[in-house]
Known about the structure:
The protein is of the alpha+beta class. Helices cover 38% and strands 15% of the residues. A hairpin with an 8-residue loop joins strand 7 and strand 8.
Amino acid sequence: MKRQVNGLLVATLITTGVLAMGPTPVTFAQAAAAVKAQQATDYQNHQYKTAIDYVLNKNVMWKYADGTFKPEVQMTQGQLLTSLVTVMQLKEKTPVEQLPVGHWAKDAYEKANKVGILAGVTIDPNKPLTKEEASLIVNNAWKPYRGGIWPGNTNYQHLQSRSILPRVWGQTGESPFVRAEGALVLEFLHVEYNGIVSGGKIADQFHASLKVENGFLLGTVPTSKDHIIYGTILLADDSIVYLKPGTKIKVKANIKAMVFTVALPKKAGLVTSYSYTELPKLTRVNMLLK
């Protein structure tokens, strides 16, 4: 289908004289390259070009049939949900009766419904989203990882507070949510989601190494080339032991508190943080859900 579209575009350019001018004959490959270059200008100079390239390369968002991205077109509910389901690699489903069998978006909506993304959402795949409507969907998806929006914020304000969406003068939650903004949000979420998954594995590895033996807390701090790992142990005398990657822990078990944290060096930042406040019991609490 894409080849047919490109072929039609090349033929149109040739017949209108765009590619037929000049002393040198134009080959099909040259014409196709010219079409590709023309399509690239669709977002080539956009301020969110890097984000758009990222989501296209990760197959989180897609171009239209004519090869354009249309960065300033308002994103639809179905487009955002389909991308979120892809980012989160969702598999299980809960029925969505509002969409008939065979509907193009039914699979994505049922996967989203299983994990609560549709809470408070009026189902309409073709609905162009406002910033507040898009933010509600994103915050629903991220509630299991970040614990919901901060008190006193709208959904849109919450994304701004987390630096997922920038503050733009004159725009409100009722302003259109365009595809370029969708790319910006989805790039952040893709990086953060994968960081949360990999950071969680590191935290689990650390937790599994812990044990209390002969009055001492023992354990090993993992290492990682892709993550920043750090933490602290607050001892009974209020002195602090710093948890450094690759080190062994051996401290008296009468500890006041311990924190173990994993972060990404660039976007998304903190991805995992656990506190241990009942030592010598090895009970941990996910601080990102508080």
